[in-house]
Amino acid sequence: MDKHPLRRSAVVSTIILAAGALTISQSTLPGPLARAAQSAKPVSATSSALVSSLYHNSYETLYRTPFGADPTDSPVTLRLLGPADMTSATIQLQNVNNNIQHSAQVVMHRVTGSRFDQLVGVSKAKTSSLWEGTIPAKYLMVPGILSYNFYARAGRQVAYYGDNGNGYGGVGTAAASSDMIIPYHITVYANTFTTPNWLVHGLIYEIFPDRFFNGNKANDENPLTQKAIGTLPNGSEGLVPVQFHKNWNSIPYDPNIVPNPKSPNYKKELAALGNGTWSTDFFGGDLQGIIDKLQYLHQLGVNTLYMTPIFQAESNHKYDTGNFYQIDPGFGTLQTYKNLISASKKLGMHVILDGVFEDTGSDSLYFNRFGNYNTVGAYQQFTSGGKVKSPYYSFYQWTPTGYLGWSGIDTLPQTNTAGKAWQQFVYGKWDPKNPTNPATNSVARYWLSLGASGWRLDSANNNNYSVAWWTAFRHAVKQVNPNAAIIGEDWNDPTNDNGVDWLTGTTWDSTMNYPFRNDVISFFRGSYNDGNVQNYSMNASQFGSTLMQMLEEYPKPAMYAEMNLLDSHDTERILTILEGAPDASSTSANQQAFWQPTAAQKAAGIQKFKLVADFQYGFVGVPMIYYGDEAGMIGYKDPLDRGTYPWGNVNQSLINYFIKLGQIRNSHPVLQSGNYQQLYAQGNTIVFARTIRNGKDALGAKAANATAIVAINNGAKASLTINVSSILRNGTRVYDALNGNHGYVVKNGSIALNLPAETGVMLFTK
User: Fold this and answer.
1) In 519-648, beta strands by DSSP E
2) Helix 514-524 crosses helix 599-618 at what angle (to 10 degrees)?
3) Which regions of the chain are under pLDDT 50?
4) How far is CA 128 from CA 85, 123, 532, in A?
5) What is the DSSP letter of 251?
6) How many alpha carbons fall within 13 Å on the CB side of residue 752?
7) Which of 109, 260, 296, 585: CA 20 to 30 A from 405?
């Protein structure tokens, strides 16, 4: 998403602001998935026995069945616990069938007799009552967000019950007035929604091609013949020679650096500054380099490659597309791309491309602001006052005085997504008899026909996109390949991003799961500002709540296909954070460029990183490795997070650990598609189970029955007794695949765990 050719490091915070208040509001809460877009008045003190006795927990199937997001046309049963003298209860619904004007009520009925005893227990029969109501299918016919709360009576007393103050879901809050609560949410998604099975069972590796490996020096960028957008000597914007690093192991140039003649690092600062232009320095990494390292990636257990843009563009990041139908010459040729696809398939790997459709580069075949292309660009029509006609003019958004730039950046003219011409260009045109002809096929269809397995969509929640746009895009992509993946970039909660639900089952398959990353930082590092989000420290209970909320809100087909990242080309590297780097918000560019951990910080960070990876590989969703993380790479955010892979200087012990995790995950399908059950979340320790029962996994596919238990101890040595009676019988033996297959036996419905400080276990039945 961060892609300004001149000032890329300044963009992310701007985009977060432009994208909406959700991320910013969340920064004040313990968990980044809290529904901060909503607010509620504080619950006032009350002596009402009714208010103090109500209870509902959306995480437990006793109170909400089924758990989580709900497919259309599927009823949902809700239950509310109250005092014995409660006389009535009602479910109050808002936004019925995704219509904000449509509300409804469902009368609840008292559960009595043996059924009450079975659900709640005989001991509570004299003090409690249980009320049940089912939201009928007719209220769940349209994808969107359905809201609910409860209204209860006990004689003359009345009370309302809704979500808790942070909007986490789970246990709620009661009040004597309806304006003191916020509603619970049910994400309603299309019952036809499915995601690619290969993605659910994937292990993703993200590559920034220029920085991974130089496999063909003949196509290296040449400062004598190649130019990119920069600042001219007179201070104006224009084309300047690119820069090329002679030393693969040097750091990327950072124009934010201010060289200080009095600094002992003065010479290093000068060298790291480069010529002062953004995104014009290159190292020579290319597609052949990726081909050369496929066996290494295969050894890691990787089966899905996601590459940042590979199409022709003048910058090193390629988010300012120059030609959507051409591989960038610095990366290779169309044949090199075909070779990569072929070599990947032989190893059972899929390739996901980066689609940047909200803008193009101003230096592009379509806009041609600098006259660098042999075309009549949209800019030529604009400057001629319409006397010269360009076939690309309608691709863009114009004002009487100029054009709109993505996030206000004039080097990235924003496309006219509402225009038919741009829609046809991106996804509409299709020639099924000749699908690899670029003249008769849209961009999305063309590259799928040439072997890509899907698209990652840049800035997919941008304000000029709509649900309708991505619905049409999805139709086009699935028409070419029903098993192609569509992954949207959305840094917020995609089921309620400023009121928009992007995961209805009609648009993307899943997202880059930045909320997952925020949760990880909050729990494993604590309060930290990485330059994008202010994260606040969470204990295991809070961490578990945010995870449960994610599982509750995301449609199951999407959740199991989520790209669970720890970092990316747009963020600070995770190991930098875990090794104790100072907040990005409080350090200068100079300090960030040359920060290095002490030996103690490095050792502690590596240990913590292994623990984080244990969690990432055990949790629901698809783990994603950002290139070089497994080798021990560090770096603050752009451009420092885009350093070169340290071939010949890797942390082999860490690589070996990731190889082990890849083997564990790939050999245990229960970690890929098993149901999730939280068993324990207190202090610094969280324990959860992944299970497959009755021959079907969480998505209903045939699978062998299996059980896994993952325990993560994020603190000092801990001795725990974990109740597993709901998933394992007494006498069952489980084995720790992380630690030499050490065995544990279920006794009295429990497993006793002795966890050293900052370690994890992965227990499996055989």
Assistant:
1) 528-529, 534-535, 563-565, 622-626
2) 130
3) 4-47
4) 8, 9, 47
5) P
6) 5
7) 585
CA 719/CA 717 separation, integer angstroms: 7
551, 560 Cβ separation under 8 angstroms? no
Q: Which domains does the chain have, with CATH numbers?
A: 8-14+197-359+405-663 (3.20.20.80), 49-182 (2.60.40.10), 674-765 (2.60.40.1180)
Please give the model's pTM, rounded to 2 decimal places: 0.93
Q: Report how far residue 96's alpha carbon sits from residue 255's, in angstroms, rounded to the nearest whole number.
A: 52
458 is catalytic: yes
Contact 281, 221 (CB under 8 A): no
User: pLDDT, tens digit, for every residue of 367-382?
Assistant: 999 999 999 999 999 9
Q: Render 651-694 in DSSP notation, one character per residue.
A: -HHHHHHHHHHHHHHHH-THHHH-EEEEEEEETTEEEEEEEEBT
Q: What is the sign, positive or negative, of the torsion defined by CA atoms of 437, 438, 440, 442?
A: positive
Told to judge if 552 belongs to the known catalytic residues of this protein, a careful annotator would answer no
Give the residues across from 486 on adjacent strands. Answer: 455
Amino acid at 762: M
CA distance 330 to 310: 9
Residue 36 has which token pair? 């901060």
What pairing do the DSSP bridges indicate for beta strands 675-682 and 685-692?
A: antiparallel
Measure Cα distances from 103 to 66, 99, 147, 739 in Å: 22, 8, 9, 54
What does the alpha-carbon distance between residue 253 and residue 247 come to, in Å, rounded to a whole number? 12
- To which residue do tokens 């690309």 refer? 392
Which of 210, 358, 359, 458 is the catalytic position? 458
The token duo for 178 is 């309806």
- Cα Rg, the chain, nearest whole Å: 27
CA distance 512 to 622: 10
Distance, CA of 657 to CA of 630 (rounded, Å): 8
The token pair at 643 is: 């350093």
> Is the link from the previous residue into 264 a cis peptide, with omega within 30 of 0?
no
Residue type present at position 475: H
| Residue 543, H or E segment | helix 540-553
Residue 196 corresponds to which amino acid? Answer: P
Structure tokens, 636: 């603050």
Interatomic CA distance for residues 265 and 63, integer angstroms: 62
| 455 beta partners | 353, 486
- Distance CA(700)–CA(197), nearest Å, equals 11
State the burial class of residue 105 (Cβ atoms within 10 Å of its Cβ: 0-12, 13-18, 19+).
Answer: exposed
User: Any bridge partners for residue 198, and if so which?
Assistant: none
> Which of 489, 493, 497, 562 is an active site residue?
489
Note the pLDDT of residue 389.
97
What is the CA angle 621-626-627, rounded to 5?
140
Bridge-based pairing state of the strands 622-626 and 563-565:
parallel
Starting at the earlier edge strand, list the strands of the sheet with 759-765. Answer: 675-682, 685-692, 706-713, 759-765, 733-736, 742-745
Contact 241, 227 (CB under 8 A): yes
pLDDT tens, residue by residue, 3-13: 544 332 222 22
